[in-house]
């Protein structure tokens, strides 16, 4: 992330210098009279898009972003809600289980970029929205200890759960965990940056940073939201992401090109 930020800042400085050149090599931007293609990389993943101008002050863009699988792991506590005396002596009554969140998604976006200084500058503010599937990550895990106890006492299966953030995630008959993390399907967006989607030259670059409002992350199993236990106080990395990340930061470096 730090390397991406450094590269983006460097490109931002280059874009600011390039905007001055555009004053001398400008094009006539009317209403939908040009079409541009672009490719990007950033915190939303790898993206491709198409854009068109609406005078020198507005640009309308449509894009698709592909986020490759990024795994975040957390060692969380296992809640043994079992009456005393039902578990044979020698078997521990506490355990930790490693839960993995595999974050991968495909989103589409519609954004309107506003250039307040018209053709005198490439500075812009942007607004729009992203949309896609509500599922943004799959969660998996396994506990050998829970598997052993469940095989010995099958009726106690529902008495075991993993404390992921404030969610009590259940185990299956084999001591494994399966579920997913979901957010809002419709996610408003605001941002700003330098560079045009319809450049004066055939090819140019654009830097953008912003924020995607995706709402609170929720954990689901079998298409039902997992019960919340406010007494849980998990501090692992995956739990922190679920608890804190309601606004998704966007840093994007884009290569833009004008077809005609």
Structure description:
The chain is α+β, with helices and mostly antiparallel strands and 260 residues long. The chain has 3 helices and 14 strands. It has helices at 2-24, 144-152, 237-244, and strands spanning 36-42, 45-53, 58-80, 95-114, 123-132, 135-142, 160-164, 167-170, 176-182, 186-194, 203-213, 218-221, 224-225, 247-258. The chain has an 8-stranded antiparallel barrel. Strand 12 and strand 13 (224-225) form a beta hairpin.
Q: Taking Cα atoms only, what radius of gyration do you get, to the nearest Å?
A: 24 Å
- Going across the major beta sheet, what is the strand order? 1-2-3-4-5-10-11-14
Q: Unreliable runs, pLDDT <50, ≥5 residues?
A: 1-25
Cα(first) to Cα(last) distance is 35 Å
Proportion in helices: 10-25%
What percent of residues are in strands?
over 45%
Structural class: alpha+beta
Q: Which descriptor suits the 3D outline?
A: rod-shaped
Overall mean pLDDT:
85
Largest sheet: 8 strands, antiparallel, barrel
Q: Helix-strand pattern, N to C?
A: HEEEEEEHEEEEEEEHE
Please describe the topology of this protein.
Elements: H1 2-24, E1 36-42, E2 45-53, E3 58-80, E4 95-114, E5 123-132, E6 135-142, H2 144-152, E7 160-164, E8 167-170, E9 176-182, E10 186-194, E11 203-213, E12 218-221, E13 224-225, H3 237-244, E14 247-258
Antiparallel strand pairs: 1-2, 1-14, 2-3, 3-4, 3-7, 4-5, 4-6, 5-10, 6-9, 7-8, 9-12, 10-11, 11-14, 12-13
């Amino acid at each position: 992330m730090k390397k991406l930020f450094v590269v983006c800042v460097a490109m931002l400085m280059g874009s600011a210098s390039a905007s001055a050149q555009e004053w001398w090599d400008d094009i006539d931007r009317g209403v939908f009279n040009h079409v541009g293609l672009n490719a990007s990389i950033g915190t939303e993943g790898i993206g491709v898009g198409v854009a068109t101008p609406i005078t020198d002050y507005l640009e309308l863009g449509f894009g698709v972003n592909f986020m490759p699988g990024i795994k975040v792991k957390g060692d969380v506590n296992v809640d043994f809600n079992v009456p005393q005396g039902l578990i044979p002596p020698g078997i521990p009554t506490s355990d930790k289980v490693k839960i993995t969140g595999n974050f991968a998604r495909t989103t589409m976006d519609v954004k309107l970029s506003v250039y307040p200084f018209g053709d005198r500058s490439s500075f812009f503010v942007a607004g729009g929205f992203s949309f896609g599937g509500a599922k943004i990550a799959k969660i998996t895990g396994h506990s050998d200890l829970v598997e052993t106890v469940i095989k010995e006492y099958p009726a106690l299966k529902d008495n075991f759960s993993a404390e992921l953030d404030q969610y009590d995630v259940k185990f299956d008959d084999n001591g494994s965990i399966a579920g997913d993390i979901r957010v809002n399907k419709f996610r408003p967006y605001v941002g700003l940056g330098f560079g045009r989607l319809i450049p004066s030259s055939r090819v140019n670059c654009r830097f953008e940073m912003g924020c995607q409002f995706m709402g609170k992350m929720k954990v689901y199993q079998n298409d039902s939201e997992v019960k919340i236990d406010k007494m849980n106080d998990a501090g692992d990395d995956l739990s922190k992401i679920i608890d804190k990340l309601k606004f998704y930061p966007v840093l994007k470096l884009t290569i833009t090109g004008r077809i005609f």
